Amino acid sequence: MNWSALEALISGVNKYSTVFGRVWLSMVFIFRVMVFVVAAQRVWGDDSKDFDCNTQQPGCKNVCYDHIFPISHIRLWALQLIFVTCPSLMVVGHVKYREKKDLKYTTSHKGSHLYANPGKKRGGLWWTYLTSLIFKAGFDAGFLYILYHVYEGYDLPRLSKCNLPPCPNTVDCYISRPTEKRIFTLFMVVSSAVCIFMCICEMVYLICKRIQKLLRKKVQADRRMFAETHEMALLSAPRSGFRPNSPIRVDPTISIQNLANIKAEEVAEKK
Length: 271
Fold this sequence. Notes:
Elements: H1 3-10, H2 19-43, E1 52-53, H3 60-68, H4 73-85, H5 88-108, H6 124-151, E2 159-162, E3 171-174, H7 178-235, H8 256-270
Antiparallel strand pairs: 1-3, 2-3
Helix pairs in contact: 2-4, 2-7, 4-6, 5-6, 6-7
C-alpha cells in the first residue's frame, strides 16, 4: 500500500489542527506507519511459513494456525491505520466546500467574501472537526478491543495447545519470533493509547475554548445592555437639573446668619 500518498493527503489537515492535532499526526505517521512499514511487516512476513506443530497430520498445522491467528496482526493494523486517518478527510472536505462556496459568493457579490478564513474552526467546521476527533478515538479504541478480544490479551505465548480436527490429539504449536512480535504488539498498543489520549486532550481543549468564548460574549453582551439601560435612564430623567444618584445641590450664597434671620422671622409670624 502507498502510505506516502495517504500521508500527503492527511498532512493538509495539519494547518487546520491545534497543537494536539499536530502531535497526533506525528505520532501516527512516525511511530505507527513508519514502524509498520519498515519493521512490523518483515517480522510477520514469515509467520505462516515458520509456524510449526509437532505432528505430521495433513491439515492440522493449517487448522491450528487459523485458530491461534484468526486475524493477522499486520492486516488488522493496516485496517486500523486506514480507519483512524480517514476521519481527517472530513475536515479537508469541509474546508474545500467552504472555499468553493466563498469563491462563488465573491464572484456574485463583487469581491466581498463570505468567509474571512474558510479554515477557521467556527460554526459547522468546528462540529466537523470535533466529530472527526470522536471517530478517530473511537476507531483506535475499537481496534484495541478487537485485538484484545481475539488474542485474549496483548501477549503472544511461545507455546500453544491445539486439539482441533483433523489433529489426532492435543498437539504443541510454536510461533516464530514470539519475543520480537510481543514487543512490536505492545509498541503498537501503547502508541494507539497515546493517540487516543491526544484526541481526548484536543476535544477537551476545543470544548473549553468554545465555552470560554461563549462566556466572554455573554459578559460583553451584559455590559452592553447595562450601558444602554443606564443611558436610557439618564435620557428619561427630568430636565430640572436633577440626575439619578446625584448629591443634593445647596445654594452657596446662603450664609448661616441669613438662615438664622429667616428662622427668627418665621417664629415672630407664628406669635
